[in-house]
Design brief:
With 392 residues, this protein is of the alpha/beta class. 39% of the residues lie in helices and 17% in strands. The protein folds into two domains: 171 residues, Rossmann fold, CATH 3.40.50.2000; 169 residues, Glycogen Phosphorylase B (Rossmann fold, 3-Layer(aba) Sandwich), CATH 3.40.50.2000. The strands form four sheets. A six-stranded parallel β-sheet has the order 12-11-10-13-14-15, with helices on both faces. Strands 6-7-8-9 form a four-stranded parallel β-sheet. A three-stranded mixed β-sheet has the order 1-3-2. It comes from Orlajensenia flava.
Length: 392
């Protein structure tokens, strides 16, 4: 399994790769991970995730300093490193999680050796533009080049997947590929602990990278626009390059005493954050699925999310929460207020709806589907969503 981002990185793609790898090991498979080293130390060793051991081949990497944590393997050595690892491991299948560096190298060398290749896309070039320092006038051209590069890598794969139907359609439009499978990242809902106790406070939660495309500034402004009588508190879990700017904004809005920036937290602390929250907010406009939203639903939280990309797959307007017009502070504030002022009966109905809607995203079904793809079996994409779209 090849990944350009993997633990200890904290993001949806890294979390999915980690959970898939550990789930496959639990079923008796031998799994090797090829990923950039998290620091100066590089080489091959055993790493443990969710109680399961995988062999990690950590490649020499450098930090990409415009980004707050991203490291990348050397592009000019990736084919040589991929050939060496593939010849040592002799895998039955190569599954790459990103086409950028590691996936490109592994797919090229696996194709030469006739090894079955599966490719999964979690990436939107648009999300990285702010870290590339490319002038705005050139950005559309750069995005076009990025998608052409993606096509070259994914064209080597016998099967291509992405987490949702909308993300699959987006990938097909962007690359000209056909037959992309929509396979949920999956989640183990039993790991999360919903609270069914009566609410004693109004606490909004956001979990994710603290970066521009997440539009956390919109959420902060919406919190400031809510009636003071609600005494709404906001917890922001995650780190990123926008942290200081958002802390400054919260002070300017006069809500700094009600906003807590928790940074990176442990898995146990994260589950506690979900349990004590009243509602989950996801203002991002660039989610190919959103594992954080899935975790919130597994925790029986109503969700208020932007009506953008794949979020309508998870948030069914009027059922388990609401969709709002992307970037619209007033609409987000109104939808949050609707949830926070709901009657106890209505609030519990939304909580139960989140648990019901997350059930089809069971991680074990995801693992079984990938096992079928690895074997070359015909696969029918699992039905995990019914899209609800609020008219703009």
């Amino acid at each position: 399994m090849g990944a350009d981002t993997f633990a200890p990185d904290v993001n949806g793609a890294a979390r999915f790769a980690e959970r898939l790898a550990s789930g496959l090991v639990a079923r008796g498979h031998e799994v090797h991970i090829v990923a950039p080293a998290a620091g100066r130390k590089h080489g091959t060793w055993t790493e443990e995730y969710e109680g399961q051991k995988v062999t990690a081949h950590r490649l020499y990497s450098l930090r990409w300093y415009p980004h707050d944590w991203l490291r990348f393997a050397m592009p000019w050595r990736i084919k040589q490193n991929s050939a060496r690892i593939i010849d040592e491991v002799k895998p039955d299948v190569v599954h790459f999680q990103s086409h950028i560096v590691v996936g490109r190298g592994l797919s090229v060398e696996a194709e030469k050796r006739g090894i079955r290749i599966i490719g999964t896309n979690h990436f939107m070039p648009e999300n990285m533009l702010e870290f590339t320092m490319i002038p705005k006038a050139w950005q559309e051209w750069a995005i076009g080049l990025a998608w052409k590069a993606a096509r070259r890598s994914f064209a080597r794969a016998e099967a291509v997947t992405t987490p949702t139907k909308r993300a699959a359609e987006f990938l097909e439009r962007s690359t000209g590929l056909h037959g992309v499978h929509a396979i949920s990242c999956g989640i183990d809902a039993q790991r999360y602990t919903p609270s069914w106790e009566p609410r004693t406070e109004n606490r909004v939660l956001f979990v994710g990278r603290v970066t521009g495309e997440k539009q956390i500034d919109v959420l902060l402004k919406a919190i400031a626009a809510l009636p003071a009588s609600l005494d709404v508190k906001l917890d922001i879990v995650g780190g990123g390059d926008q942290l200081k700017n958002l802390q400054t904004l919260s002070r300017e809005l006069g809500i700094a005493d009600r906003v807590t920036f928790l940074g990176y937290v442990t898995d146990d602390e994260l589950r506690d954050c979900y349990t004590r929250a009243s509602v989950f907010a996801m203002p991002s406009i660039a989610e190919l699925q959103s594992i954080a939203t899935m975790e919130a639903m597994a925790s029986a939280l109503p969700v208020v999310a932007a009506n953008a990309m794949a979020l309508p797959h998870l948030v069914h307007d009027g059922e388990n929460g609401h969709l709002f017009a992307p970037g619209d502070v007033a609409d987000l504030a109104a939808k949050l207020e609707d949830v926070l002022t709901a009657s106890p009966e209505e609030f519990e109905r939304m909580k139960k709806a989140s648990r019901k809607l997350i059930a089809p995203h069971d991680i074990q079904r995801t693992i079984s589907t990938f096992e079928s793809l690895y074997r070359g079996d015909a696969v029918t994409d699992p039905v995990t969503e019914v899209i609800t779209v609020v008219p703009e």
